[in-house]
Amino acid sequence: MKKLIIPALLASMLTLAGCGATTSDAAKLDRNLAIAELTEQMDELGYERITAFPGIQDFLNIVVDITERQKKVMGLYRTQAENHADVQAFLYAQREATPEQLKAAIMEFDLGATTEAEKIGPKIDAYRGAIAEVSAANQELFEEILIQSAQGTYLLTQYGTEIAKATAIYQAQRLMLGGGEEQTVNNNIYLAMTRAMDQIDLATQASDLISIDQDTMLAIDALQAELEAK
């Protein structure tokens, strides 16, 4: 399965901007592309509940639930990304700035604004509030993803023999181009575990994408606290 490399997508933002697109357009395009590709891959894996494999059934269905919830969070994130593309582009451009440098960049930008609506400072405040719900849900899911990732690794070792046998059956059927019972996530433990681990991988990538903005918001909150303390 094709794996999405989030850092490469984000880095392409600068390339797009250099090719004639505005930084805001690039930010929006990158995020839409990342979310769209992750969503497509999640949908391809499917969300069918598992009724077989009593020893790992709960794990498999918990992962399906996490994937569906992560997809909903991705939808919320995409909406906020579209509504605040200019803020995301500005923050990405300042991604390596210290709190003091970020403060100076905001002040410099706003000094050049000709209207209140053009100022980036108030827009960042609005974005912080808008992204808070998404960030909270994403953080909760990230903690669950870590738990299930560890559980999946453990189950792969515990059921290694059964998975190896199921792998052989699946590969043999593919070589024979069919024949016998169709192998699915509900009758082949290899396919079931492979799907679950792929779902965990995609959910992790989605969480990483969203957490980029979480980290930025934390930096802004730290800056705000520092300013209020002075």
Spell out the blueprint of helices and strands:
Elements: H1 6-18, H2 23-45, H3 57-83, H4 85-93, H5 99-111, H6 120-158, H7 160-175, H8 189-229
Helix pairs in contact: 1-2, 2-3, 2-4, 2-8, 3-6, 3-8, 5-8, 6-8, 7-8
Short précis:
The protein has 230 residues and is mainly alpha-helical. It has one domain.
Radius of gyration: 22 Å
Share of residues in helices: over 70%
According to DSSP, the number of beta strands is 0
Coarse morphology: elongated
N-end to C-end Cα span: 52 Å
Structural class: mainly alpha
How many discrete structural domains? Answer: 1
Q: Secondary-structure element order, as H and E?
A: HHHHHHHH
Mean pLDDT: 82
Keywords: Signal
Organism: Pseudidiomarina sp. PP-1MA
Protein name: DUF3053 family protein
Question: Would you give an account of this structure?
Answer:
This is DUF3053 family protein. Residues 1-17 form the signal peptide. Keywords: Signal. This protein is an all-alpha fold and 230 residues long. It has one domain (6-229). It has eight helices and no strands. It has helices spanning 6-18, 23-45, 57-83, 85-93, 99-111, 120-158, 160-175, 189-229. Helix 1 runs antiparallel to helix 2, helix 3 (57-83) runs antiparallel to helix 6 and helix 6 (120-158) packs antiparallel against helix 8 (189-229). The protein is elongated and about 70 Å long. The chain starts with 5 loop residues before the first helix and ends with a helix. The model is unreliable at 1-29 (pLDDT under 50).
